[in-house]
Design a protein that fits this description.
Layout: E1 6-11, H1 19-29, E2 35-40, H2 46-51, E3 58-63, H3 68-74, E4 77-78, H4 80-85, E5 90-93, E6 99-102, H5 105-116, E7 126-130, H6 134-145, E8 150-154, H7 158-168, E9 172-175, H8 180-183, E10 189-192, E11 216-219, H9 228-235, E12 239-241, H10 244-250, H11 252-259, H12 267-277
Parallel strand pairs: 1-2, 1-3, 4-6, 7-8, 7-10, 8-9, 10-11, 11-12
Antiparallel strand pairs: 3-5, 5-6
Helix pairs in contact: 1-12, 5-6, 5-10
Bound molecules: 2'-monophosphoadenosine-5'-diphosphate.
Amino acid sequence: MSTAPRACVIGWPVEHSRSPAIHGYWLRHYGIDGAYEKEAVRPEELETFLSRLAARGYVGANVTLPHKEAALRFARSADAAAQAIGAANTLWLDNDGVLHAGNTDAYGFMTNLDTEAPRWREGCDVAMVLGAGGAARAILHGLIEAGVSRILLSNRTAAKAEDLARHFGPSVEAIGWEEKDSALSACGLLVNTTSLGMAGQPPLDIAVAALPASAVVADIVYVPLETPLLATARMRGLTTVDGLGMLLHQAVPGFERWFGVRPEVTADLRAHVVATLGVG
Ligand code: ATR
């Protein structure tokens, strides 16, 4: 049997995952004798699948929907980000075959923000995050770790924003979905984590004109690459950050752990993944 390291992405469904395109590119680019596969695993089969990860020849895995919370429970240990976010997206086996969990979504978002908008922190006393799903949890964790002391959180279903505000503590304040426009003038950073603006969904309706001229606008949606929100912000002259960069950067720590090389997020990788998305 080949001893080349193998990793996979576990999801249900898993067909849509872009992770094989990213890791496959890096394996070829760095000339590594390894493999990255897709594994469609039903929720009720996850625990058994993870207990047999080593037997299947895997050194680790990414986990995507709907397994991110359950994967955290089945791992022996979890890094600080996975614990704070309450979900894992990266798993690895140690030399004794023990399963460990991490979450690189906050790292991916923050690294992309630092790369694409290096001055975002200047004038960002207040940030606004829209949405209260799994991505919002990761981004709130990342922003708090980066030292943003006031984050306004707005979600269509107010109770979910209030739950997250309680979970993350005093730096996160839930505000009503109808209140977001009037709070924008104080915000140096606006992050959309809702599905609004995604292909096939209505656009996000928000008063971009109310943001300060120095504000940065980030969207985690990456189909299309330029959402209506980002297009409006760009036309206003604001710095914009798209969702694809987060996806590329969150893959870096897993690849390094499994294959022993810290890979780079380059324009060529981005073009390769964009080609698989069928978007421009
Ligand atoms: P993820 O885990 O990727 O963040 P999710 O948990 O499905 O995804 O969250 C989707 C987010 O988009 C939620 O905040 C959702 O708001 P609700 O909590 O009210 O459902 C938000 N969302 C989806 N469709 C929306 C719409 N038409 N208007 C406003 N918010 C919407």
